[in-house]
Write a structure and sequence with these properties.
This protein is an alpha/beta fold. The chain is globular. α13 packs across α14 (about 385-405). β2 and β3 (about 45) form a beta hairpin. It has helices spanning about 1-15, 60-75, 90-100, 110-125, 145-150, 165-175, 200-210, 230-235, 265-270, 275, 285-300, 300-320, 340-355, 385-405, and strands at about 30, 35-40, 45, 105-110, 135-140, 155-160, 180-185, 190, 195, 210-215, 245, 255-260, 335, 355, 360, 370-375. Helix content is about 45%, strand content about 15%. A seven-stranded mixed β-sheet has the order 4-12-11-10-7-5-6, with helices on both faces.
């Protein structure tokens, strides 16, 4: 055991030396003051890196739904879905999510990470063509860690295609055994690079080579499409996606993950996935809050439109100030820093000197040399807030550049 302690200490020392040691910033979200939070000393902080994209976490409709459910059903579910952990709120939420994506059925998980890990590992460990023909999975090189975890734990042959590279994907599909079951696993919005997958082209390749499609829409559900069904809904392609995975913890402002698809597929995963069967279900108050959020967001077109208007406004502000913005096709606005230690320092100074919070994104989340700050402006970020942010960044980055040059 002493040897392992020594290993941990040396590994942590190395991580600190590289400037990528993760330190958590204690911030208390203000339900009635978002996007402002408070530090333990009471200081008000303007947060720019929340995944509560639509500011639904503190919406009165959502908060009241949670409170009402907590008063009537208590705080926790008290069991797995099979052991007293299924409430009417769970059933109604799954039905709502299936309808959101135009699918037959949906299945709730305790988080988006778990939904990807459990669903992918379960599907890819099955043997629809017999044990002599394991699954061939084709995974985008920039897929989320939860997708990678699910794929790695399965009995599948992994094929990694270059990010959004359709010729490379087709070359891998063409080389795969004809008799093997195939899956293409990818995301719609990639949150670190803020770009969007060519969903239609991927669906075309899937049809050509007999592959099923698995689409992670966690950074798109609630925001894109006429009803907030994601990029696949926006592009009129949801019917061509076999399994859509999403989250309740971002645009819907709550917690939990889910998948949606054909009844038989969802039922199979429900029946055999350990990550679903052997874990306590979402608290009923969370399911009730999420249900209220999904229903509200589907009809609140102005809120979703405001999100994209605010994202475009921040991009223009960064560009006008000459800040090193990374090109973005989505609502996410990344700013290139390029050094792990500097990235942490910029984030620290924004917080300590200007009372603004933006998360530093370092390796292994992004490759070394591509360190960045990630901004997610929402419908409640004002022009005045953006002007203050640009002034702060201009000051901090100017000093940071001088230090780096010295």
């Amino acid at each position: 055991m002493a040897g392992f302690h020594t290993f941990c200490r040396r590994a942590l020392d190395d991580i600190r030396a590289q400037g990528r040691y993760r330190e958590f910033t204690a911030l208390q979200k203000q339900a009635d003051g978002f996007p402002y939070y408070r530090r333990p000393d009471g200081t008000k902080v303007l947060v720019w890196s929340s995944n509560d994209y639509l500011a639904m976490g503190g919406h009165p409709v959502v908060v009241e739904a949670a409170c009402e459910a907590a008063r009537s059903m208590g705080a926790g579910a008290g069991g797995t879905r099979n052991i007293s952990g299924t409430s009417p709120a769970h059933d109604a939420l799954e039905a709502e999510l299936a309808d959101l994506h135009g699918k037959d059925a949906a299945l709730l998980f305790t988080s988006g990470f778990v939904s990807n890990q459990a669903a992918l590992s379960t599907i890819l460990s099955s043997a629809p063509a017999g044990p002599e023909h394991p699954w061939q999975v084709f995974s985008d090189a920039k897929n989320h860690a939860s997708m990678i975890a699910g794929i790695r734990s399965a009995k599948a042959v992994r094929n990694i295609f270059a990010h959004n590279d359709m010729p490379h994907l087709e070359s891998l599909l063409r080389a795969a055994p004809i008799g093997a079951p195939k899956m293409i696993a990818f995301e719609s919005v990639y949150s670190m690079d803020a770009d969007i997958a060519p969903i239609g082209a991927i669906c075309d390749l899937a049809a050509r080579y007999g592959a099923i499609t698995y689409l992670d829409e966690v950074h798109a559900v609630g925001m894109y499409g006429p009803n907030g069904g994601g990029v696949s809904e926006r592009d009129g392609l949801a019917h061509r996606i076999d399994i859509i995975e999403g989250t309740l913890a971002k645009a819907f402002g709550c917690h939990g993950g889910y998948i949606a698809g054909d009844t038989e597929v969802i039922d199979y995963i429900r029946s055999v996935a350990p990550g679903f069967i052997f874990t306590t279900s979402l608290p009923p108050m969370v399911a009730a809050a999420a249900l209220a959020a999904v229903r509200h967001v589907r009809s609140d077109h102005a809120r979703r439109a405001k999100l994209f208007e605010r994202a475009d406004a921040l991009k223009r502000c960064f560009d006008a100030a000459g800040l090193p913005r990374i090109a973005s096709d989505s609502h996410i606005v990344p700013l290139h820093i390029g050094d792990a230690a500097l990235c942490k320092e910029v984030s620290r100074r924004l917080l300590e000197e200007f009372h603004m919070y933006a998360t530093p994104i370092n390796y292994p989340t992004v490759p070394r040399g591509e360190e960045r700050l990630r901004f997610s402006p929402g419908p409640l970020h004002t022009d005045a807030m953006m002007a203050e942010l640009v002034d702060a960044l201009s000051t901090v980055l100017s000093v940071g550049s001088q230090k780096a040059a010295a």
